Amino acid sequence: MAKKKLLWVAVMALFLASCGAPKVLITPKTEATNFEATGNYSQALTAWTSYFETTEIEEVAGADFAQAAKTAFKAGNSAQAISWFDQARYKNYADVGMYQTLAAIYKQQDNLSKELSALEYITENFGSDNSEVNTRLLAIYTEIDANDKALAVWETLDGTSKNKEENLDNYFEVNKALENEAVCDSLAEVLLDKNPDHLDALEWNAKKYYWAGQKRYEREMAKYNANKTRKNYNTLLKELDLVTADFKKALPYLNKLWKLNPGKEYAGYLANIYARFGDEDKTEYYKNYMK
């Protein structure tokens, strides 16, 4: 009897082993997230499509549409991404990544208005502490001459972002437009410390010193010509020394600009400076580029 029981147990064990473990069904949604985790966005896109096709729309969460849309964008299908984002919004769902992705799509499409709307939605609904969003907003506001908004965004940037040349460039342009000369003077020096070949900063310093000297020259010559006395002549000589000093300050920046971009744009400044210095050869050399 005992032998029969042992035989029966052995047979059952063999039978159960042959059946194997029960299979676990993987849903298309799970497949999609698994593919996303490995960076296989094309396969993930296919899985999300299958999930939506086999699931009643009432049962699909807005977050699923948003996640699928982000995946579609990464897979290079912007049209599908926008369609699924629309579904997410229809279900009253929104998150930062969703609108950042929308902004990226509109940037690719060169649709500045829609890109700006997406970015502003983020700051209005999720706060203004996103440095990536703020950096792009600063660039857009600078481009469209929304200078007050650009200044407001600048104030929200953290120290690291404010030290990036890209953001300093835009802040420089805004302050030039607003004629904040003292701020521009400081920014020009910061930009040249970062990039000695920074064209706009070189131009700012070159023109600042050149026009300081040129305007002083014209002003003092007019005063002297209006009343040519010995006293005024002595005053003129002192003022002309200051003119020379300003031109000497402008010259290194103009020489650098000439090396970077020789031609008519800077030739007039250089010709005039060397004329004031009495250097006829260099004056004629640069005048040849003014024709």
UniProtKB/TrEMBL annotation:
Residues 1-20 form the signal peptide. It comes from the Bacteria. The keyword Signal applies. InterPro entries: TPR-like_helical_dom_sf (IPR011990). The keyword Signal applies. Keywords: Signal. This is Tetratricopeptide repeat protein. The lineage of its organism: Bacteria, Pseudomonadati, Bacteroidota, Bacteroidia, Marinilabiliales.
